């Protein structure tokens, strides 16, 4: 395994971390190539096509190939990014709600924030404070948005501004004349006479004075926002300009993140969902460009191609968007977009990055045992022989630990390992040792050595049932080793764990340092309102009554 390089002569202190939206220029700067064709493979040699979504410059996902950029193998090269330039801008489905809020805050004619000079200066002075916290900025943004969206005539250009709402993934609706009916609405309807003739489905919107704003129009509005007004939107002109919320360039991830799977049943490969969607975007780009060139002849076809490009891009980001038409899904009912790879139990965070296993733990089915105390857990002897606790040898316990060593690993109570504190001998395993060897080790035992013994009665362990929703879902119990195969505890303790005995499983952690805080007897009542958590419940009460009644 390669060691990571550290520069020992340079020390730096991280002052802060900033999360921003990638701009089109930053996407291009981080990329090594531009995807220009929908073709994945050359038909002649069946190799990845140059300029396609599987271009060798994006890295390799095969063991016998090298990266075309850095020359490293599959194990050493993590891949390189590319990009696709969109023929027309589209809305980013993740930022659409934020775009609507920005449009509600600015004039749809001059792009100025809809605040008068006095209010504008007041909020700008507050936003310029250097130590303003995130929560304070969030509260200010909410106030500015609430004030701006209630203004119906721009204080800067006197243009009419109506209510803005989300109309779908492809456009935003501007109800321009909601608060100002009359001659202005009639003039507005006259302007769209030709479009209504070509697209009759738009007539209800035009008659109401509702203006659909597509991504290209919105991008022009966001580009025109003056630099001095951007802080009022709680954004930054250099790091997070409002125009970056509109997609004009789509990053293409490395091949290693979307590997091709070679089929053993049929010839060819099965491509990743992201690869398929990127290829569709490259194809639709060409389709939109062709229709754009002939836009004077068929405006409707251009709008439809633009809509499909928007839907496919949104599907690649989040395939569970409600605004994606079902006919685009085709025969496949589920597509793994970027969001699907990150969220949920099988996502990157919970499925791959979060911890899954710990040493010295056990898991099995639980059973009731009314003969146990409420702070005891019955541990199967099989588990007790596997779970160990490192005991430091002292003058008080040396004889007991010698007996455990002589018992060995297969007789309970026994021991699994012995480790000398001064290096007299290496760590010795007792599982495959004979009686003579164990006796020799026991005689050589000295104070300070460590014996990893079996779990024994009165040891403290942590007992847990998922999901761990509150503090009392994990509690400390005292061990009582039993010759059974299930974990047992008193049924009065079911409530804090929300446990029942219909096949539930629980976890055991072999050592608890928080004995005084997490013991079952220290958690008799709920921290929410003081109600008793550990008490006789349900069948236990009924059974006790039926057994003892005369």
Automatic annotation (TrEMBL):
Class of this enzyme: transferase
Domain RNA polymerase N-terminal: 243-548
Protein family (similarity comment): Belongs to the RNA polymerase beta' chain family.
Superkingdom, natural source: Eukaryota
Biological processes annotated in GO: DNA-templated transcription
InterPro entries per record: RNA_pol_asu, RNA_pol_N, RNA_pol_Rpb1_1, RNA_pol_Rpb1_clamp_domain, RPC1
GO MF entries: DNA binding; DNA-directed RNA polymerase activity; metal ion binding
PANTHER family registered for this protein in UniProt: DNA-DIRECTED RNA POLYMERASE SUBUNIT BETA' N-TERMINAL SECTION
Functional summary from the UniProt entry: DNA-dependent RNA polymerase catalyzes the transcription of DNA into RNA using the four ribonucleoside triphosphates as substrates.
Reactions catalysed according to its record: RNA(n) + a ribonucleoside 5'-triphosphate = RNA(n+1) + diphosphate
Keyword line: DNA-directed RNA polymerase, Metal-binding, Nucleotidyltransferase, Nucleus, Transcription, Transferase, Zinc
GO CC term (a single one): nuclear lumen
Protein name as annotated: DNA-directed RNA polymerase subunit
Keyword Protein transport: no
Subcellular localization: Nucleus
EC number: 2.7.7.6
Keyword Protease assigned: no
Annotated Gene3D superfamilies: 1.10.10.1950, 2.40.40.20, RNA polymerase ii (3.30.1490.180), RNA polymerase II, clamp domain (4.10.860.120)
Source organism of this protein record: Macrostomum lignano
Pfam families to which the protein is assigned, alphabetical: RNA_pol_Rpb1_1, RNA_pol_Rpb1_2
């Amino acid at each position: 395994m390669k060691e990571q390089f550290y520069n020992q002569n340079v020390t730096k202190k991280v002052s802060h971390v900033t999360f921003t939206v990638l701009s089109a220029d930053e996407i291009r700067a981080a990329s090594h190539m531009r995807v220009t064709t929908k073709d994945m493979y050359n038909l002649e040699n069946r190799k990845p096509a140059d300029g396609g979504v599987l271009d060798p410059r994006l890295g390799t996902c095969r063991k016998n190939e090298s990266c075309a950029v850095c020359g490293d193998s599959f194990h050493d090269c993590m891949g390189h990014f590319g990009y696709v330039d969109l023929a027309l801008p589209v809305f980013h489905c993740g930022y659409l709600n934020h775009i609507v809020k920005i449009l509600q805050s600015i004039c749809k004619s001059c792009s100025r924030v809809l605040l008068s000079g006095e209010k504008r200066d007041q909020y700008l002075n507050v936003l310029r404070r250097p130590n303003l916290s995130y929560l304070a900025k969030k509260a200010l943004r909410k106030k500015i948005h609430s004030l701006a969206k209630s203004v119906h005539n721009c204080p800067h250009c006197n243009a009419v501004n109506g209510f803005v709402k989300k109309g779908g993934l492809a456009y935003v609706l501007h109800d321009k004349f909601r608060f100002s009916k009359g001659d202005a609405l009639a003039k507005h309807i006259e302007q769209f006479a030709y479009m209504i003739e070509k697209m009759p489905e738009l007539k209800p919107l035009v008659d109401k004075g509702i203006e659909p704003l597509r991504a290209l129009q919105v991008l022009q509005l966001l580009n025109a926002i003056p630099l001095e007004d951007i802080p009022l939107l709680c954004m930054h002109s250099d790091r997070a300009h409002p125009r970056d919320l509109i997609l004009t360039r789509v990053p293409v991830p490395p091949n290693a993140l979307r590997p091709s799977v070679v089929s053993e049943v049929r010839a060819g490969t099965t491509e990743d969902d992201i690869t398929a969607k990127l290829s569709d975007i490259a194809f639709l780009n060409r389709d939109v460009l062709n229709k754009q060139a002939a836009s004077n002849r068929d405006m409707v076809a251009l709008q439809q191609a633009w809509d499909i490009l928007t839907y496919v891009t949104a599907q690649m980001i989040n395939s569970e968007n409600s605004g994606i038409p079902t006919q685009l899904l085709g025969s496949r009912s589920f597509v793994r977009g970027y969001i699907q790879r990150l969220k949920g139990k099988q996502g990157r965070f919970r499925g791959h990055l979060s911890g899954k296993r710990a040493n010295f733990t056990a898991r099995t089915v639980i059973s009731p045992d009314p003969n146990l105390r409420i702070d005891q857990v019955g541990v199967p002897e099989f588990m007790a022989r596997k779970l160990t606790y490192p005991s430091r040898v002292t003058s008080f316990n040396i004889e007991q630990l010698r007996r455990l060593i002589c018992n060995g690993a297969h007789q309970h109570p026994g021991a699994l390992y012995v480790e000398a504190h001064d290096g007299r001998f290496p760590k010795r395993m007792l599982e495959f040792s004979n009686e003579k060897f164990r006796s020799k080790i026991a005689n050589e035992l000295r104070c300070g050595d460590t014996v990893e013994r079996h779990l024994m009665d009165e040891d403290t362990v942590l007992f847990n049932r998922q999901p761990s929703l509150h503090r009392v879902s994990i509690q400390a119990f005292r061990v009582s080793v039993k010759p059974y195969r299930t974990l047992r505890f008193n049924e009065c303790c079911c409530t804090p764990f929300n446990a029942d005995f219909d096949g539930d499983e629980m976890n055991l952690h072999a050592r608890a340092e928080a004995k005084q805080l997490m013991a079952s007897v220290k958690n008799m009542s709920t921290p929410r309102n003081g109600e008793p958590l550990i008490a006789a419940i349900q069948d236990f009460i009924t059974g006790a009554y039926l057994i003892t009644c005369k």
